[in-house]
Amino acid sequence: MKRPKPPLNIVVVEDEPLIAMDMEMMVEDAGHKVIAEAASLYDAQSWDNSLNPDIAFVDIQLARQTSGLDVSKMIQVRWPQTIIVFVTANPKIIPEDFGGAHGVIPKPLSQNGFLAAMKYLQEGVCDPPPTVQQPNSFTASPAFAATWYD
């Protein structure tokens, strides 16, 4: 499998405009590119199939009574290689199997925590396993972490 090189292509699925804007700025501060954004499953379904995101940051509770779990499933079907990270204020609602996601970043977001998670993910995506320690701001799903160390 060919590994992506930085800058990574990122999609952001977040229904709170200020949080979405903060996330986009932090992604760009980390040297990556936001290629699409959405506030709901319906918005994400309108994305062009050629997007090919490397990482998707997905809130769980979205606009128009849609769920990040459904967005995760849609992304898995359309772009199976995409790393999906839930960003949520309530990590306890994430299923034990992480709903197919590769990890979780809890809200509220801090710039340092988000950037540390981005660095860890960049290494994990581009040149696994990551050489930096997993930051407290990111929890990898057990299945995802195992792919780096098998």
TrEMBL record:
Q: Which residues carry this modification: 4-aspartylphosphate?
A: 59
Q: Which GO terms describe its biological process?
A: phosphorelay signal transduction system
Keywords for the protein's UniProt record, in alphabetical order: Phosphoprotein
Q: Please give one Pfam family short name.
A: Response_reg
What sequence ranges are listed for the domain Response regulatory? 9-122
Q: What SUPFAM superfamilies does this protein map onto?
A: CheY-like
Question: What PANTHER family would the database entry show?
Answer: PROTEIN PILH (PTHR44591:SF20), STRESS RESPONSE REGULATOR PROTEIN 1 (PTHR44591)
Protein's name in the database: Response regulator
Q: Which organism is it from?
A: Agrobacterium larrymoorei
